[in-house]
From TrEMBL:
Keywords of this entry: Membrane, Transmembrane, Transmembrane helix
Keyword Membrane found: yes
Stretches that traverse the bilayer: 36-53, 59-78
Protein name (database record): Membrane protein
Keyword Cytoplasm included in the entry's annotation: no
Length: 110
């Protein structure tokens, strides 16, 4: 993650995910927020595996709630901003998983 990145205004529209991702990272500067996203993403994976093993669709709901709950706590209480999900839902979901990967491979530090 680059320090000093000036995120785009919240009202900006993005034509490509490659343009959105730097904005997304700017909305996740707080370490605790990133950590909460990371934990929430692992929870989503765990609930999806549980769904696959049991076939019980309630685990899909649990996956969605887990992912958003951790992320939104990070934004509202630590990052002090409005989650990008509200303005850019698809790109935001993609950003969650790209950031998760970037954390796993060491491109972004926790």
């Amino acid at each position: 993650m680059t320090e000093g990145h000036d995120p785009a205004p919240a009202s900006r529209t993005f034509d490509r995910f490659a343009d959105f991702y730097p904005f997304y990272l700017g909305e996740h500067r707080n370490t605790t927020c990133r950590r909460l996203h990371f934990v929430g993403s692992w929870g989503v994976i765990a609930f999806l595996v549980t769904f696959a093993a049991t076939g019980n669709a309630w685990w899909l709901l649990a996956a969605v709630v887990c992912g958003y709950a951790f992320a939104w706590v990070g934004h509202f209480f630590f990052e002090k901003n409005r989650p990008a999900t509200f303005r850019h839902p698809i790109y935001s979901l993609m950003g969650d998983w790209v950031m998760f990967r970037d954390i796993c491979v060491g491109r972004i530090k926790l």
